[in-house]
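User: What would this chain look like folded?
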Amino acid sequence: MSDPFFTPVSGFDLPRFAGVPTFMRLPHVPLDDPKLSEVQIGLIGTPWDGGTTNRPGPRHGPRQLRDMSTMIRAQNGATGVRPFEMVNCADLGDVAPNPADLQDSMDRITAFYSKVYTAGIVPLTAGGDHLCSLPILRALAKDGPLGMIHFDSHTDLFHSYFDGTMYTHGTPFRRAIEEGLLDPKRVIQIGIRGTAYDFEDRDFAKSVGITIIPIEEFHARGADDVMAQAKDIVGTHPTYVSYDIDFVDPAFAPGTGTPEVGGPNSFTALQVARLLEGVNIAGADLVEVSPPFDASGNTAYLGASLMFEMLCNMAQSIVR
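Assistant: Here's the prediction, encoded as structure tokens.
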């Protein structure tokens, strides 16, 4: 059972539009707070999009995700899981990036998550663009390479952009494999689609043993079958979950920088996150929510709902 201190504020006690918005109305516990030693799952914002190559805006994602997450309640309506009663969860705040320096920002992210990792806290991140995942993995894979379940419309496995730029939101997992942070044979990428310049990224994936499930195969097989394969690939060892909101069709999640048509609807988006049950989750992220491209806020609300689904499975993973 969790400590009552870590119980989210109820909408019956304080209206959801009132108070300081934290992730899911959880207490804010900074890294220098004595309460940090009691936190088991830490929700963290990485408000940075220095790796974006086209439409910027994900730096504003964590703030809107916090605001929309005030709608999250105590119990999962589909599974009955009550994560906040199972483990101590808290909002650990934001990593402070350097918007003028890409490398310094990545170092800052790694340093922040290294403290989280040392404290024994499992992080759940709100991005930011997808390059944020690389410095997070540098902190979490200190004891050996992780597996990964990756939901996205893009592989993010490209070698470089613009004739030699190695660090963009299209390259993080190529770098992660080169740095030994991920075990490619325990990596599966689900939902890949869209037009392409070439198949350099897919050729690399094939050469190192990464499993790619194109969106056509995903739709043909269904979420249950694909997720069963994903869990078989990652096994029982520690696994990172990375969820790019552009995995979802832009009809349901327009607020993102690189939308690709033909993706799943909101229900299926939630379903695949729910089917992570049983995975040994070492950390997870929800990235590429870009509020400037969605005035309604529906993309961020879907993102916050996906974070809750992942949180439920993370809590179950801890108490198992």
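The radius of gyration is 18 Å. If you want, I can go into more detail on any region.
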